[in-house]
Amino acid sequence: MMMTRWLHWSALGALMTLTFATASAQLENAAARLRFGAYFPSDTDLQAFNKTWFAVGLTFATDGVPLLGSDATELSADLFTHQTGGSRGAITSLLVTQVYEQPVGESDVRLQLRLGAGLYIVDTTGPSKNIFGGRVGLTLWFNDSYSVELNYDLTDRFGANKDRANGFSLTVGYQF
Q: How, if at all, do strands 157-158 and 146-155 pair?
């Protein structure tokens, strides 16, 4: 168990170092995007709080990492939260994501595949836990500013019930 965690954190550290080194050299091409939407947890214990949570995210994108063949590299922070009755909970993700893009026809519409990994801070049923996780997502860009994003987050287990902060999120984004 300890060896697995060490390997996860070492891989994440190497990926973040590579990404930050590339991103710092390419800041003139950077863009930021704000996203709002809904998060749908797939874990039954998290669904017991609320089946639909609020989702908000901020993404900072630069050119891709040539070694990985990506079109863009993103650093993102997302917050999934709910408040039901007296119960509150939050999941925060801090991710490094590689983006692979494909134009759709002859229009401005683009489809992107996102593969990310990073830290999830889960504060739902007791003291907050820091866990490793990842994300797979698809983004449909309507033009250079507006997008719709569908993601699936997959994380390590946490808490006494061995829950996971897995779930789908659907967000609408604006790039500025």
A: unpaired
pLDDT for 35-80, tens place per residue? 999 999 999 988 988 999 999 999 999 888 777 788 998 999 999 9
95, exposed or middle or buried, with CB in 10 Å at 0-12, 13-18, 19+? buried
Question: Which two three-digit tokens encode residue 112?
Answer: 């992107």
CA 173 – CA 117 distance, rounded (Å): 20
Radius of gyration from C-alpha coordinates of the chain? 17
Domains of the chain: 2-175 (2.40.160.20)
Q: Is 56 helix (H, G, I), strand (E, B) or coil?
A: strand
| N residues, the chain | 176
